[in-house]
Specification:
- The chain is mostly helical.
- The chain has 23 helices and four strands.
- A hairpin with a 2-residue loop joins strand 3 and strand 4.
- Helix 4 packs antiparallel against helix 5 and helix 4 runs antiparallel to helix 18.
- The radius of gyration is 24 Å and the shape is globular.
- The protein starts with a helix and ends with a helix.
């Protein structure tokens, strides 16, 4: 039904585009809009699997985003870990997810996309069920948190590959844009659910079902479990071996990498092969000058990603401790998804002629500047909090009772500025990696673009955990501005390093005139 409705909408759009306007003036006025709509109308003949992938991406990201916001709160409130211990566990969990991701491509060759998604979703369902039902530390971690990292790693990269698999050449660009939008809609839903359950059940409340008590945080895991289960019918609708080509639909069974062996032996051999291929890949990359320059570039980008890790795992704790239990911190962070959804296509279209490196520097400066808003004294924002803006944001929009804390003004401003910077730099990081890659090594260089996330995750349990425990503790005096100042100073290393070292690390981008781009 969803597929038919979507297809009907695109058929209507295509009809509007192909219908001649009544006069020349109308044609001129509507030409820009028609060209814009034409970009979407190429999907009117898209195969059903593409729409299924969009739906799976939305549900999967919503479940993942809800888990991200809840994870540290659950580890401290339900399992009794301190701030530093909780963030170290989150760092280990994130790193495990990244490592497993490196093997997913080869594993998909053995299982196929449909089976890999079933396996990943099944593992996530089991893991989320364990995290929902138990508060026993070893069981929650070994049976819940660790398997969840593996399950999430099996799902995400496969969906990106599926978009390429289920689109024609003309459909590919807009399809990747749409899946990025679906990802942000998923995060938006996660932010709304995070606040909804904390508001309705209480920050440290809960409810009973069939003799079982579910705390608020485990109820949030239950919501993510339901979202995960909702993915199963969509995966069932996928046809194994289906592929979109410019010549039409192809249906062919996937060829196993290791024929004439059992599925388990095939998986074992594939994992071994993946390890060997990864080692060979890095040996080859180490011989290229461009690799070291890209690596230096990505090491600097990691300091920008520290801000994102701060928002995922420290910001919820900060918001609850500074603004009180039940504070709508998820709704405030949800502004990010809205701004990114609106700005990324526009900024991408308006800045195409500028080099990716230049846009990363500009976006990085804006992103870092946003953090220093949170480092300012709250007293500076009290006039706004006590005026019409504070009344609208706090009382009318967020439903805050009583006086409006200045953070209710500071956080939205910070998130909006941060989102503008992200819209400039984040998509261009991946473009830069692909643009400077030697011919035939685009995939290898593209894989390296995930290095900043790995390095930023290493800082979760050390740098960010220490800052939270020292400057924003659960009990005692807080100096949260200092915490944000330290995060801002660390992230400032990225744009300053990119500007200072640009002659050493910048590489010519294929298809661009660097001299013209720098003017």
């Amino acid at each position: 039904m969803l597929y038919r409705i979507a297809k009907l909408a695109f058929d209507l759009a295509a009809h509007m585009i192909n219908t001649a306007p009544g006069d020349e003036a109308d044609a001129n006025d509507s030409s820009a809009g028609r060209r814009f709509m034409a970009k979407f109308a190429v999907l009117k003949d898209a195969m059903p699997e593409l729409w299924i992938v969009f739906a799976i991406k939305f549900l999967g990201i919503a479940a993942y985003g809800l888990t991200n916001l809840t994870l540290v709160l659950w580890l401290t409130s339900e399992l009794g870990y301190g701030d530093k211990q909780a963030l170290r566990l989150v760092a280990a969990w994130s790193i495990l997810m990244t490592v497993v991701t490196l093997l997913v491509g080869s594993l998909t060759d053995v299982l196929g996309m449909r089976r890999t998604l079933f396996l990943g979703t099944g593992i996530c369902i089991f893991a989320r069920l364990m995290m929902t039902l138990t508060t026993v530390r070893w069981l929650a971690l070994a049976g819940g948190l660790a398997p969840l990292a593996i399950g999430e790693a099996l799902g995400g990269p496969v969906l990106i590959a599926a978009v390429r698999h289920y689109t024609t050449t003309r459909q590919r660009s807009i399809s990747f844009s749409i899946i990025y939008v679906m990802m942000n809609f998923g995060f938006l839903l996660a932010a709304w659910l995070f606040d909804h359950f904390r508001h309705s059940l209480g920050e440290y409340g809960g409810w009973d079902l069939l003799g079982l008590h579910f705390s608020t945080y485990r109820t949030l895991f239950l919501a993510s479990l339901i979202l995960e289960i909702m993915m199963l019918p969509f995966i069932c609708l996928m046809r194994e071996g289906a592929e979109a080509t410019d010549e039409g639909l192809k249906l062919a069974a996937p060829k196993p990498r290791h024929p004439n062996v059992s599925i388990f032996d095939s998986i074992r051999r594939t994992i071994i092969d993946a390890g060997r291929e990864t080692i060979q890949l890095f040996r080859k990359l180490l011989q290229e000058d461009g690799f070291y320059r890209l690596l230096a570039f990505l090491l600097l980008i990691a300091f920008l990603k520290v801000i994102l890790m701060q928002m995922y795992y420290v910001y919820p704790k900060f918001g609850i401790r500074e603004l009180g239990a039940g504070a709508p911190v998820g709704t405030l962070w949800g502004i990010n998804s809205v701004v990114v959804i609106l700005l990324v296509p526009i900024i991408g279209a308006l800045t195409q002629r500028y080099s990716a490196y230049r846009m990363v520097v500009l976006g990085g400066l804006i992103t870092v500047a946003s953090v220093f808003i949170m480092a300012m004294p709250t007293a500076w924002f009290e006039p706004l909090a006590n005026g019409w803006l504070g009344n609208w944001v706090g009382h009318s929009w967020l439903g805050v009772q009583g006086s409006v804390h200045p953070y209710y003004i500071m956080i939205p401003i910070f998130v909006i500025v941060y989102s503008v910077g992200e819209s400039f730099y984040s998509p261009r990081v991946y473009e830069y990696a692909a643009a400077i890659a030697p011919k035939g090594q685009e995939a290898s260089y593209g894989a390296l673009s995930y290095v900043p996330f790995l390095l930023a995750k290493l800082l979760i349990g050390t740098f960010l955990g220490t800052l939270l425990a020292r400057y924003c503790p659960e009990n005692g005096p807080r100096h949260s501005q200092t915490m944000w100042l330290m995060v801002g100073l660390m992230s400032l290393i990225a744009p300053v390093g990119l500007l200072t070292l640009r002659r050493c690390i910048r590489v010519h981008e294929a298809g661009r005139d660097d001299d013209a781009a720098s003017q």
